[in-house]
Model the fold of this input.
Amino acid sequence: MKNAHPTAELLGFSVSLLDMDQTLEFFQDLISQREPNLIMTLDATALVLAQELPGFADIIRRATLRTADGAGVKWALRRKGHTVTRVSGVDLVERMTELSAQRGYRLYFIGAEPGVTDLAAERLRLKYPGCNIVGTHHGYFPADSDPVVAADIAKLKPDVVFAAMGMPRQEQFILNTMQAIGAPIMMGVGGSFDVFSGKTKRAPKLMQALHLEWLWRLMLNPTKIAKVKKLPKFALMVLREGR
Done:
């Protein structure tokens, strides 16, 4: 039942065609089923990493839902004749926090630098009074500490765990701990807590509408050039795959 949603094939992976509201409904169904799930937002970088990093493609395939995130993925799916709405990690964090205030869903935030995740949670609590963020933890700990961190999270019985550690570390953490934590939704959200804490400013609405968030991130942080350089490789992969 939980896998029944419309998808399109892209570079060997099935990508969800659900829009944001449909994705949120899907999340609520997963929460009601009480089984742990890995959720991924697929952007061009993730799909290139799947070609470069051994095992990352297998991690992506284990996800219950892979949303279309980023202008590159939207472009690739449009070439195949599919209409798709961007469903990004940062937007899902905000919408699920809003739903938490309405329905009491228990959220846990893990990742980012010490202090950043706490500040992100506090700002979201102010924006959505009554939201149920039950705990936070920074992302600066070694992988061999995953079981200890997971045991602490499990005590809080979250419905949703958002992990902001960057790919592929956040997905590896989820796979290492999802059975121990038991949260119905566990999802990597990259730099989302930096945005909500105010450490990083999100692109202006116009740049978002023009699909230029990558340029905004590069302007704010030139070290992101390595990620931007993956975009031409992604485009070539898509063109080689054909329609």
